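Listing S7. Sequence submitted for prediction.
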Amino acid sequence: MIEWSQWRNQPLVVDGLIVLAWLYALLAGPLRARLAPAEPWPRRRALHFYSGLAIFYLAAGSPLSRIGSLYLFSVHIVLQMLIMYPAAALILTGLPDWMIDPLLGRPGVRWCAAILLRPFVAGGIFALLISVLYIPRIFGWALAHRFGPAVEASVFLAISLLFWWPLLGSSRLFPPIAYGGRMVYLFCLEVALTGVFTYLLMAEHPLYPAYELAPRIIPGLSPENDQILGGVLLSGISSLVLVGALGVNFFRWARTDREVAGTKV
């Protein structure tokens, strides 16, 4: 039975979101005078950041997350896509450079960030862990363990922040890559994720016993079809985001070139 009023208020999720929201308010408010005295309250960025946290909580703590964990693989996929794309992108674009660069500029952190935030390191980690997380044994652990869904959602958020960084990061120490590099980066990720898309779409039997044995809450939607639907959603939404980002960056690149050419005339 689905209890639509029952939210997953797991400490790992709720406490983590409260801490992040409090830290952001502290940095953007009282500590802003020390970090960036000339900067105003980052209203637009704050809206992005808190909207990203809200979407993450919707995906990880709402009654929909129970449906995704207990009954429908396809719903689980949709919630993961919410974390990977809008939630992570909004959280990242909500962080101004003066808020993150003091941390990234610390000697030990800067060395680590210089490696992790390289485009093909960040993209490679993203593609590799996305593929690993759909291995049946690992995916099944996340469904069965008490804290599994929260850990899984947190990992998806972390690797998605890595994915978005070369495109949307606001840091001056580790800025977004040039438009040409973005095109190559997005194309390579689309190719790299093809394996996990194919794995889910071409499987001849249900990969995840938890969904195979779960009660059917949608008549006529068998475990096999639910898995295929999930694979279609994963590949379709991911391709839409990647190709869409590629198109947006291509047109921005072309517009920038026209503006540069115009200034030389």
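Caption to Listing S7: primary sequence and predicted structure tokens for the chain studied. The CA atoms of residues 140 and 208 lie 7 Å apart. The chain has one domain: 11-259.
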